[in-house]
Write a structure and sequence with these properties.
The protein is α/β, with parallel strands linked by helices. It is 33% helix and 30% strand. It contains ten helices and 15 strands. The strands form three sheets. Strands 6-7-8-3-9-10-15 form a seven-stranded mixed β-sheet, with helices on both faces. It is globular and about 70 Å long.
């Protein structure tokens, strides 16, 4: 039984269908990514999971039963838009949110100070939130989300405003929570973060789930015809070549999608003939970003469920 199951979830705002019959499952003890471009329906879906928006139709099941107060009592939620009281001080803000979830006293203060030290915020413990940078405000909000050690952690665009150092720290803590058996659900439009962290994903575009399942299975399926090439030189001769389906250009490296996997050697021959210096030639390799561009960038697509 999955930890959380979403069945044909739909949300209408007047005539706008923000989420269109979305279905996916979140396994126990996993990191699940709801991914898609800005405005695709990620935040609306998250808000329905959190009962902020009521679905127009469909249902959400928590361990086989409709989501109720039990789920909400066991969840930590970080919204996309900061929900902090700017005049409050850093420590009192974290303790306030901890008490809302039933954690207070010395235990709450001890845990809060440990997290503040880890995020290098000890020196700002008595600073008002309005004096903090956006990145530091995001760190305070993240600490407030996990301070009560929730079983479910729901993060809407959690890496927003963070520099690389703190992004890495956030990822470390998310992985620690997974090792502790927690279920983490996070939304993002940044495919590289999802690829590094997630066990399962659901890709949403224009309100519809267009890809859904185990990430390793998805990558294996899409990588069959793909070559990741790092090179020096010019590969203009591959444009519109009959063996090429699509090229994702990343500068001095590309992802090349072939029409069939048997054309890998033909591609290698063409590169050598045109004096392209091959630094790496990795067949059956594709990034989540390339999969996203291939699906969400295409005008016509079918739902793919690879769970």
């Amino acid at each position: 039984m999955p930890a959380l199951e979403v069945r044909k979830l739909t949300k209408m705002f007047d005539l706008l269908k923000a989420v269109d019959t979305a279905s996916f499952e979140v396994p126990e003890g996993s990191i699940f990514g709801l991914i898609g471009r800005n405005g695709a329906g990620k935040t609306t879906t998250i808000r329905m999971l959190m009962n902020i928006y009521m679905p127009t139709s469909g249902e959400i099941l928590f361990r086989g039963r409709p989501v109720d107060h039990e789920f909400r009592a066991r969840v930590g939620y970080l919204p996309e838009e900061r929900g902090l009281y700017k005049k409050m001080k850093v420590l009192e803000t974290i303790l306030f949110f901890a008490e809302l979830k039933g954690l207070k006293g010395k235990d709450a203060t001890k845990k809060a100070k440990e997290y503040l030290e880890r995020f290098e915020l000890t020196g700002r413990i008595n600073s008002k939130l309005e004096t903090l940078s956006k990145g530091n405000q995001q760190k305070v909000q993240f600490i407030s989300t996990i301070i009560h050690d929730p079983d479910f952690i729901v993060l809407d665009e959690p890496f927003s405003g963070l520099d690389p150092i703190n992004t890495n720290l956030l990822k470390e803590i998310i992985l620690e929570k997974k090792r502790d058996g927690k279920v983490i659900i996070f939304s993002t439009h940044l495919m590289d973060f999802a690829e590094r962290l997630c066990d399962n994903i659901a890709m949403i575009d224009k309100g519809k789930i267009i890809l859904n399942g185990d990430l390793n299975t998805i990558k294996a399926d899409f990588s069959k015809n793909n070559v990741k090439l790092t090179y020096e030189g010019d590969i203009f001769f591959l444009d519109n070549h009959p063996i090429i389906d699509h090229i994702s250009d990343f500068g001095n490296s590309v992802g090349i999608s072939l029409n069939n996997p048997g054309q890998t050697q033909e591609l290698l021959r063409l590169l050598i003939e045109h004096n392209v210096k091959i630094i790496s030639f990795d067949s059956a390799n594709i990034s989540l970003n390339e999969i996203f561009i291939k699906l969400a960038g295409s005008p016509a697509k079918e739902d793919l469920n690879l769970a």
